[in-house]
Amino acid sequence: MMRKIFFLSGIFFLVSLPVFALNLDKLSDDDIQMIKRMIPKLQLLIKAKEADSTIPTLTFDELYAPLDSNEQKFIKQFQKIKGKKAGIKIPWRGMSESVKLLVAIRDQRVQEKVKVTENGVTREEIKERTLPKQFLPLPVYQKYNEMMEAMEKDIGRRLLVDSGYRSSAFQLYLFVYYLQNHGYSIRETVKFVTLPGYSEHGDPKHQAIDFINKEGINGDPNVKEFEVLPENQWLLENARRFGFILSYPKNNLRGITYEPWHWRYDPKAAEKETKKRRKGKSRRSVPGMTPSQDKKHESLH
User: What is the predicted pLDDT for the residue at 97?
Assistant: First the structure.
């Protein structure tokens, strides 16, 4: 808390003004309490925006509206965090609040296993769940649909969109909300939910899609469960043909945990990766090449 002294007509006034200096390793107790007061207010806004399908156009002004002046000053500090200081290694992609030609994806349904307990006995049941409406830029939706038609033709299965476009304001809400899952540490949270301006979900030119299969498997909380899906194996072999690339593979150097469900539409990067793989295969086919000579190219897979 900062104090300022004002002099008016011979009278001194001592005024306390809130000053927020975010601790990147762990927020202070006061900051944690501030977040706990803010979240219920913001949740009401998010639910209303989801209900009328306007969540993709959520602006910062709309996000701030339910908060009092101190809460607004506090949440705005998260937009000022320097990515490198927080441990972010992915590129800045810019703030996004309004995108034209978004396609709404409705009525996606999954048949997932849920645990039901009755009379002290727990059993598994298959229940249908309708996914929240998702949005994709038109060109990305067209390529996604083309890719899913090819997947269905090849293996008789397809993936649904678990998460598509998000405005930067919505990304800020998600970041603040999920701090509670990571000990209120900004440095830890950015490994799972990035700050606004860095998310591929808010970059329409390189739009990210988080996939989920029709049995409700999306890698949460079991990453391996998604990794071994035939749909995922098909993506690894074929997605580049449609301009999609896996953003965060195993052992990536971007400071983001392995996310086999997270693919971005990036035709140039997909083409570049395809050329690298072809070059690697070509070098491995050269007679007399030893494993140590080819080690550099094995790392591409």
Answer: 80
pTM of the model: 0.83
Q: Confirm whether 71 is a catalytic residue.
A: no
Domain ranges of the chain: 25-265
pLDDT at residue 192 above 50? yes
- Tell me the helices (H) and strands (E) count for the chain, helix number first: 10, 10
126-167, pLDDT tens digit by residue? 999 999 999 999 999 999 999 999 999 999 999 999 999 999
Q: Residue 280 pairs with which residues in a beta bridge?
A: none
**Whole-angstrom Cα distance, residue 286 to residue 126?**
52
Please give the structure tokens belonging to residue 128.
Answer: 């249908």
CB 134 within 8 A of CB 163: yes
Which residues are CB-contacts of 33 (< 8 A; sequence separation ≥ 6)? Answer: none
- Band (pLDDT 50/70/90 cuts) for residue 18 is low
CA-CA distance, 147 to 151, in Å (whole number)? 6
pLDDT band of residue 282 (cuts 50, 70, 90) is: low
Structural contact between residues 252 and 260, judged by C-beta atoms closer than 8 angstroms: no
Q: In CATH, what number does 25-265 get?
A: 3.30.1380.10
DSSP of 127-168: EEEEPPPEEEEHHHHHHHHHHHHHHHHHHS--EEEEE----H
- Measure the CA dihedral 191/192/194/199, to 10°: 120
Q: Which two tokens stand for residue 81?
A: 């965090």
- Cβ pair 113, 124 in contact under 8 A: yes
Largest CA distance in the chain: 93
Q: Which of 71, 200, 231, 259 is catalytic?
A: 259
pLDDT value for 290: 34
**CB count in 10 Å sphere of residue 115:** 8
Q: Which residues pair with 209 in a beta bridge?
A: 263
Closest CA to 57 of 69, 67, 45, 66: 45
